[in-house]
Amino acid sequence: MNDERNEEIEIDLRELFYVLLSKIWIIILVTALGLGIAAVWTTAFIQPVYSSTSMLYVKSKTTSITSLTDLQIGSSLTEDYQVFIMSRPVVDKVIDELELDMTYEEFVKNVSVENPTNTRFIYITVNNHDAYMAKTIVDKLTDVSRERMGTIMETQPPNVGDYGHIPEHQTSPSLTKNALIGAVLGFVLAAAFIIIIHLMNDAIQTTEDVEKYLGINTLGLIPLEEGVSKRGTRGHDKDAARARRAKRKAQRKARRAKAETDAQEE
User: Fold this and answer.
1) Looking at the structure, do residues 127 and 91 belong to the same domain, yes or no?
2) 242: domain range?
3) Considering the domain boundaries, does residue 168 fall inside one?
4) What is the tens place of the pLDDT at every residue in 33-82?
5) Cα distance between residue 246 and residue 103, in whole Å
């Protein structure tokens, strides 16, 4: 029982494969169309985003950076600094000094603060649609947060390891990635549409369909009458009848013409 079911599934999958293969030109066309639409949309309608990153190095209030205690204190301060950089007083001051037209919530959505594991480095990254503005914001955020850290937390402020740089290339969107996504979506939609149309078509067209769906062995085939389209055999009775009437009318005209020719010869 299981073997028969597996065999039937295998035959169906093979049939679907050949159906898709027969419509490969449609799939290629839709895939190329999806790739083109995604590429045009990405280029024309999505604003590029640029990222600029600065670096802070955290050390404790003591002058020595070699003792175990100093290292532990520095690590604890790093976690505190990460939270402090995104605090409202720091962000609001940056917005005011740069006269940015954005709220606190909008600002923090475009800022990320990272601390690599087992290090005391803090990386501040700012995303913006303008490359120069991304650098300007990250530099100002670095200076303001560093200044307030030393004042509010009463500790030695972190050292600036590196200020931001003006990015030469956009961070997002990725034209290649979006184009590939569009191509994949086009391929999937085209294949799904072809498969659905095929599965919904329950018309019996071949002897294999008769044996498969009706369980009846075919003993012979009746050829189509000349001048009758195959569509007439698939439920289009009006077209088939019209073709037969046209053929009979042509035959009558031919017989009358022949009779008149024979009469003239006599």
Assistant:
1) yes
2) 207-266
3) no
4) 999 999 999 999 999 999 999 999 876 555 444 444 444 444 566 777 88
5) 78
Would the pLDDT of 28 be above 80? yes
| CA dist 139 → 53, 94, 144, 161 (Å) | 9, 10, 9, 12
C-alpha atoms less than 13 angstroms from C-alpha of 64 in its C-beta half-sphere: 6
> 195 and 146 in one domain?
no
Q: Is the distance from CB of 113 to CB of 122 less than 8 angstroms?
A: yes
Do 231 and 144 fall into the same domain? Answer: no
- The first and second tokens of residue 239, run together, are 């077209």
How far is 61 from 145, CA to CA, in rounded Å? Answer: 17
Report the run of H or E that residue 112 belongs to, with start and end: strand 111-114
Look at residue 167 and tell me if it is in a domain: no
pLDDT in tens, 87-123: 999 999 999 999 999 999 999 999 999 888 777 888 9
DSSP designation for 155: S
Predicted pLDDT at 222: 66
Contact 52, 138 (CB under 8 A): yes
Q: Which amino acid is at 222?
A: I
- Could you give the number of structural domains in the chain? 3
- Alpha helix positions (H), 128-174: 131-152
pLDDT tens digits, one per residue of 116-167: 877 788 899 999 999 999 999 999 999 999 888 877 766 778 889 999 999 9
Which residue is associated with the tokens 């799904």?
Answer: 192
The span from the first CA to the last CA of the chain, in angstroms, equals: 77
CB-CB contact of 114 with 122 (8 Å): yes
Q: Could you count the other beta carbons within 10 Å of the beta carbon of residue 177?
A: 12
Cα–Cα distances in Å, from 78 out to 126, 154, 182, 206, 230? 19, 14, 42, 75, 79
